[in-house]
Every structure is written in structure tokens, then in C-alpha cells.
Design goal:
Elements (H helix, E strand, L loop, with lengths): L11 H9 L3 H13 L3 E10 L4 E13 L3 E3 L1 H11 L2 H21 L5 E7 H4 L4 H12 L6 E6 L7 H13 L3 E7 L5 H7 L4 E4 L1 H5 L5 H16 L4 E4 L4 H9 L4 E3 L9 H11 L1
Parallel strand pairs: 2-4, 4-5, 5-6, 6-7, 7-8, 8-9
Antiparallel strand pairs: 1-2, 1-9, 2-3
Bound molecules: ligand C2E and magnesium ion (MG) (3 copies).
């Protein structure tokens, strides 16, 4: 039955109405049992350096195997967690789990970095910095190996708050990446106002680079913008050799995408590190 209700048959509206009628307490219970039963887990996608031919980082991506709905993609369920506020406990779990995984790789001698996704909604929680420090200490993780990828999922009304939260995070030594750059309404304004360390160009631009002159121009402009700001770029969504060669030619050296590897489990990622690095 789980298969009949698989993700392909569930559009966002159906998904929301299925989960919406559950009240917050029910949803909270569901989250708790999903975490306990391992129905929510992380996979990792390598970020690959075209200069050194090494994996330099992993991006942690959350996965949820719902008992009745089946596999739900984070693009669908993260917004629901944001709406209900449960993104906060989920985010804490994700951060802890990711740090544990990073410590494990490091203890095996692999000095990769780890990128973790945060929505702006997650930055606005009480004791954020204390929680981050506690988790780092507990897992013996060096913050210099962490990148927080920020995605614009909501409109910020008081940007000053976020400027200082982001500065506090950077003071810990954690780097900040602007994720999906170029897709949000406020990408440029955030770039101008927030102190960030990395730009991740959204995959929608690279997807259409061959067919759309406009997308190619936008892509190249972002590359040039990042260069002028001295910001490293990660290009996500590289699926073909042609795309890889194109971005290399225009000076983008860090890529992430199915061409190199899909997101994989922590153990498989460890094996890939042994093979590659
Ligand atoms: P994102 O952070 O931009 O992550 C990249 C997404 O692109 C991932 O989708 C990844 O599987 C997919 N992807 C990677 N390479 C390729 C490729 O070559 N081609 C295509 N077509 N897709 C590729 P995923 O895992 O479904 O995640 C979707 C979004 O959900 C993420 O976008 C991120 O915004 C959010 N998300 C995922 N995990 C977390 C999390 O732990 N916390 C939060 N707050 N958000 C998360
Ligand atoms: Mg990301
Ligand atoms: Mg992205
Ligand atoms: Mg995204």
C-alpha cells in the first residue's frame, strides 16, 4: 500500500491536505517516532574540486520515509515543518546527526567539510548560538569544517536581525553559503547586505544553459559577480560532462551534481572518500 501512495501520485496540495488535518501535536508525535524509528535520515552529496580531483565537502540532505505516504522529498516537507515550527527540533536533530557523521569521517582521517541546509526560519530561534556551540562541543567538531547553506524560503521583514545572527555564526568560525542563488526574489539584496563566504548557483541556470541564451547570460553574470566579490562558487545540479566542462572553462572549480554522484548514505560516502581522496 505504501507504494501506491508513492511520491509521484502525491502533488503538493494532496500532501498538504493529508498532513494539514493532523494537528501540530499529532505531527509532533509523528516527527518523534520517525526520528526514533530511523524514518528520517540524512544522505550526503559530494562537492568535488575540478582542480584537485578530490571530494572537498559533503552536503547533508534530509530524507523522510513516511509510513503511509511513502518517500517525501524535503522540497515538499521542509515547508510544512517550517509552517508548524517543527523545523526547529528537526533542524537540531539534523545538525547533531551531521556533526556526528563529520566527526566520524575526521576520526578516520578524511578532512572533508560538511554543508548543512538552514532556512531563514531556523535562524530565528532562541538560544541558536548556544545550541550550535553545545552540539559542536558534544561531537568534538571543528567549526572551520562547517558551512551553513541558507535558502530564502520566506521574506525577511527585519533583515538587521539576520545580519547579526549570521555574523554571530561566522564568529564561531562556521562559513555561510547563499544557496539557490539567483532564484529567490531577494538574492541580490541579501548578497549585498549579508556577510557570506560562498555562493551556490542554483541548478535551474545550469540545466538550461544549452537551450537558453538568457540562462547562460545570467549564469555568467553570477560567476562574474562572485569573482568581483571574491566569493567562491559551488555550482549545483551538474548532470552532464558538457555542463562540467563548461563550468570549468568559465572558472568554476567546485561542482555538485548527479554527474559526479547522487546523494548517498554516510557509509557509502566514507567508501567514496577512501576511493577518491
Ligand atoms: P538544496 O540545498 O539546493 O539541495 C540540492 C538539491 O538538488 C537536493 O535535492 C539534491 O538531491 C538535488 N540535486 C543534486 N544534484 C542534482 C542534479 O545533478 N540534478 C538535479 N536535478 N538535482 C540535483 P533534495 O535533497 O530533494 O533537497 C531539496 C531542498 O530541500 C534542498 O535544496 C534544501 O533547500 C532543502 N533541504 C534538504 N535537506 C534539508 C535540511 O536538512 N534542512 C533544511 N532546512 N532544508 C533541507
Ligand atoms: Mg543546499
Ligand atoms: Mg541549492
Ligand atoms: Mg534548495
Amino acid at each position: 500500500e505504501d507504494q501506491r501512495l508513492s511520491i509521484k501520485k502525491f502533488n503538493q496540495h494532496q500532501l498538504e491536505s493529508t498532513i494539514d488535518f493532523l494537528n501540530r501535536r499529532y505531527f509532533e508525535k509523528e516527527l518523534q517516532s520517525a526520528l526514533i524509528e530511523g524514518k528520517i535520515d540524512l544522505v550526503y552529496q559530494p562537492q568535488y574540486c575540478l582542480n584537485t580531483n578530490k571530494i572537498i565537502a559533503a552536503e547533508a540532505l534530509v530524507r523522510w520515509h513516511h509510513p503511509t505516504i511513502g518517500k517525501i522529498s524535503p522540497g515538499q516537507f521542509i515547508p510544512l515543518f517550517e509552517k508548524s515550527g517543527l523545523i526547529i527540533p528537526l533542524g537540531k536533530w539534523i545538525f547533531d546527526k551531521a556533526c556526528r557523521q563529520l566527526q566520524y569521517w575526521h576520526s578516520n582521517g578524511y578532512e572533508v567539510k560538511l554543508s548543512i541546509n538552514f532556512s531563514f526560519a531556523q535562524l530565528h530561534q532562541e538560544n541558536l548560538i548556544e545550541t550550535i556551540i553545545q552540539t559542536l562541543t558534544k561531537n568534538k567538531v571543528d567549526p572551520a569544517f562547517l558551512v551553513f547553506e541558507l535558502t530564502e524560503t520566506m521574506t525577511i521583514h527585519n533583515i538587521a536581525n539576520f545580519i547579526s545572527i549570521i555574523d554571530d555564526i561566522r564568529t564561531l568560525g562556521i562559513h555561510i553559503a547563499l544557496d539557490d542563488f539567483g532564484t529567490g526574489y531577494n538574492s541580490l539584496s541579501y548578497l549585498a547586505q549579508l556577510n557570506v563566504d560562498v555562493l551556490k548557483i542554483d541548478k535551474s541556470f545550469i540545466n538550461k544553459i544549452n537551450n537558453s541564451k538568457k540562462d547562460k547570460i545570467v549564469f555568467l553574470s553570477i560567476v562574474s559577480l562572485a569573482k568581483q566579490l571574491d566569493l567562491p562558487i559551488v555550482v549545483e545540479g551538474i548532470e552532464t560532462k558538457e555542463q562540467m566542462e563548461f563550468v570549468k572553462k568559465v572558472g568554476c572549480n567546485i561542482i555538485q551534481g548527479f554527474y559526479f554522484s547522487e546523494p548517498i548514505g554516510g557509509e557509502d560516502f566514507g567508501k567514496l572518500l577512501v576511493k577518491m581522496n
